Amino acid sequence: MPDPSDLICVGVLSGAFGVQGEVRLKSFCAMPEDIAAYGPLYTADGSRQFQIKLTRDVAGGMSARVKGIETREEAEAMKGTELYAEKSRLPRLPDDEFYHADLIGLEVRDTQGALLGTVRAVHNHGAGDILEVAGPKALLLPFTMAVVPTVDLTAGRIVADPPDVAE
Questions:
Q1: Pair (116, 145) in one structural domain
Q2: Long-range contacts of 158-164 (CB under 8 A, 24+ apart)
Q3: Does residue 91 surpass a pLDDT of 90?
Q4: pTM tops 0.85
């Protein structure tokens, strides 16, 4: 069983496709079809393992066969299951790119060194990543070079230059 702290969410099962046990799969990978190469995939706690075989592109993602899922009812029961891969199986990223999981929990300081909080989540609603920072004031920061000029994973810190906001 893998260490849950070494798992990265790479997709989610979004329901059944057809009547023969295929599932709808939404991949979070840069190249959606790469999700099948990172297997086996796991639940967040690492307790369940899945072997995935992609079958075709469908609206909103792709369809896949999951070993052990044979009926539409079994596929529907899997709806909402997030799929995780071991980080060691994922590609190494360039220095200016980060997995969302690596950012969560990092301390965020402004350019003067004042603590703003810690990254609670990373959101993306289609226009780019947004860091949700939990601290004395809740902040949503666009994850751009202008607003977040420094990410230091080794030190566990982000330097941010948040825009001035009228209170």
A1: yes
A2: 158/103, 158/106, 158/107, 158/108, 158/109, 158/119, 158/131, 159/108, 159/109, 159/110, 159/111, 160/108, 160/109, 160/110, 160/111, 160/116, 160/131, 160/133, 161/110, 161/111, 162/110, 162/116
A3: no
A4: no
Give yes or no: residues 126 and 80 share one domain: no
Domain containing 133 equals 100-159
**Closest listed residue to residue 162, CA positions, set 109, 121, 118:** 109
Q: Any long-range contacts for 139-144 (C-beta under 8 Å, 24+ apart)? A: 139/108, 141/108
14 and 76 in a single domain? The answer is yes
> Which pair of tokens denotes residue 123?
């959101």
Task: Flag whether 17 is in a domain.
Answer: yes
